[in-house]
Amino acid sequence: MLAPALPETPNPASGPDGSTLQRARGVAHVGFAVCDGKTRLADLYQSGSAKVRLPRGSGERQAVLLNTAGGVAGGDELDYSASWGAGAKATVTSQAAERVYRSLGAAGRVMNRLEVGEGAQASWLPQETIVFDGANLQRRLEVDLAVGARLCAVEAVVLGRAAMGETVRRLHFRDHWRIRRDGRLVYADDVRLVGDPEVILAGPATGDGARTFATILDVAEGIEGDIERARDLLEAARTHPRAEGLSCGVSAWNGVLVVRLLSRDARALRETIMKFLQGWRGEDLPRVWSC
Fold first, then answer.
1. Strand partners, 27
2. Of 48, 125, 131, 245, which residue is 20 to 30 A from 94 by alpha carbon distance?
3. Is the separation of the CB atoms in 78 and 110 below 8 Å?
4. Residue 162: helix, strand or coil by DSSP?
5. For helices 266-281 and 227-237, what crossing angle results, to 10°?
6. In sequence order, what are the beta bridge partners of 165?
7. Are strands 184-195 and 135-145 parallel, antiparallel or unpaired?
8. Per 3-state DSSP, what percentage of the chain is helix, strand, and coil (rounded to 5)?
9. For residue 68, is pLDDT > 90?
10. What is the mean pLDDT of the segment spanning 187-216?
């Protein structure tokens, strides 16, 4: 079982008068194991604002993570972890898009840790992260895969809600991914946006004016042989009326397949992700994605 990793001391944030503000802290863990030939719940732990829900009647085993604080503000700390025993198959998703609010200075911190046993199939499918003006977020994804394990993961980031007239001009965003198979590093990725994201993402080599971006990752032995199938599915998924401004690509090497997407329209990006994942995984997305 993955033990909670947050330090005992909180990450303080100060108000305009120098007082220490109360911050949200949450720790949640869910574990799956095979029993009598079926994937079943093996471990469950939750505290603070981090909660886990286990919907019924969804076919495959699912866990839904939620943050009862309503979002992440400066100084908040959330620690989510999930484990899949040998041969287990389950999906972990989120109840809704996570919101990251303006910070008074301190960073909000989110730690995601996954442990996938031999022959297990893990799907890590949280919904979008919506970042507001002045946000400060540091997020990490650490994954340990055993031999023969498979991971399908997605992360999408939306820079303000265009439909609400929101713009993001000040941002401090760090996203750190490390994935290991049998103890060996097979994938490392870091995103760093500090300053005005409209300026940073304006260039054709950075974002070409994108307001939202996403990564879809599939790690499995021999997955590079499916790159043409992934490209075909991605092209077929780009059917949203506003998908003309969406750019995407697929690369694959050494058991890792990566899909990158950039868009000026968050809805077009979401629809493309949903259609691609349904075709790629051969099964419906968790019901919360359609709510």
1. 47, 79
2. 245
3. yes
4. helix
5. 140
6. none
7. unpaired
8. 15, 45, 35
9. yes
10. 93
Q: pLDDT tens for residues 229-274?
A: 999 999 999 887 777 779 999 999 999 999 999 999 999 999 999 9
CA atoms within 13 A on the CB side of 23: 26
Query: Rounded CA gap, 140 and 127, in Å?
Result: 16
Residue-level length of the chain: 291
**pLDDT, tens only, 6-25:** 443 445 555 555 555 678 99
- Which amino acid would we find at residue 155? E
**Paired sense of beta strands 50-53 and 38-48, if any:** unpaired
> What ranges in the chain are assigned the alpha helix state H?
197-200, 227-237, 266-281
CA distance 278 to 285: 6
User: pLDDT for 134-188, tens place per residue?
Assistant: 999 999 999 999 999 999 999 999 998 877 778 899 999 999 999 999 999 999 9
3-state class of 268 per DSSP? helix
In 147-162, which positions are buried (b, 16+ CB within 10 angstroms) versus exposed (e)?
Answer: ebbbbbbbbbbbbbbe
Helix (H) and strand (E) counts in the chain: 3, 17
Residue 171 CB-half CA count within 13 A: 25
Classify strands 121-125 and 150-159 as parallel, antiparallel or unpaired: parallel
φ/ψ (deg, to 5) at 68: -70, -5
